[in-house]
Each structure stands twice: as structure tokens, then as C-alpha cells.
Amino acid sequence: MSLSEEEIAFARDLFAGLGNVTTRKMFGGLSLYQNGTIFAVLRSDGVILIKGAGAFADVLRAEGCTQWREGKGTMPYFTLPDAALDDPEEACDWARRALEHL
């Protein structure tokens, strides 16, 4: 499955408030960077995931965010809270919190 231009535009728009966000297509998905640091991915199925490093991973779990599982392993990425998908300001707040731990 490959991402549509609409899905890519949605992810870019969602995090545009961070400033200096760049993207790179990878493995059928998209990586999102702020000042060269990857903070989120858009999987090939259209799901946006935020990077949960260190203590921030516990915050995401407590919020009910689901960790990405691939095969038998887990990846350091979590779903965004549902409200953040409808609110770019909230999505950027979550991204800033993620970046603080990277």
C-alpha cells in the first residue's frame, strides 16, 4: 500500500505549526522531521504515529495511545490521541513534547 498525496498533505499540514518540518518517504510510508530530528511517521496504511522516547513513552501509554507493533517486536512510535488528529495545534503540542525527549 502506498500513501496518497492527500494523506501526505494532511500529515504535513497537521504539523506545519512546528516550523521547519521536512519529510522523507521510507518503506512505503513517510518520516517527519523537525530541524533534522525524526518525531513522527506516517505509515503506509495512513496511520500517523508520534515517537515516544524515554519517559514520554509512559505519558503516551497513560493517554491510551497504542504502540506500533511489527511482527513480534515493538517500534518506538505511538498513535496520537484522537483529538490531536482533528486539531493541528494539539498535534503540534504532542510533537513538541516528543521532541523534548529526543
Describe it.
The chain has 102 residues and is α+β, with helices and mostly antiparallel strands. Helix content is 34%, strand content 32%. The chain is built from four helices and six strands, in the order H-E-E-E-E-H-E-E-H-H. The chain has a six-stranded antiparallel beta sheet with strand order 1-2-3-4-6-5. The radius of gyration is 12 Å and the shape is globular.
Features:
single chain, 102 residues, alpha+beta, six-stranded antiparallel β-sheet, 4 helices, 6 strands, 34% helix
Q: What fraction of the residues are assigned to beta strands by DSSP?
A: 25-35%
Measured between the Cα atoms of the first and last residue, the distance is: 29 Å
What characterizes the major β-sheet? 6 strands, antiparallel
Q: What is the mean predicted local confidence, pLDDT?
A: 94
Total strands: 6
| General form | globular
Number of helices: 4
N to C succession of SSEs: HEEEEHEEHH
Structure classification: alpha+beta
User: In what order do the strands lie side by side in the largest sheet?
Assistant: 1-2-3-4-6-5
Task: Return residue spans where pLDDT drops below 50 for at least 5 consecutive residues.
Answer: none
Q: State the helical fraction.
A: 25-40%
The Rg value, from CA coordinates, equals: 12 Å
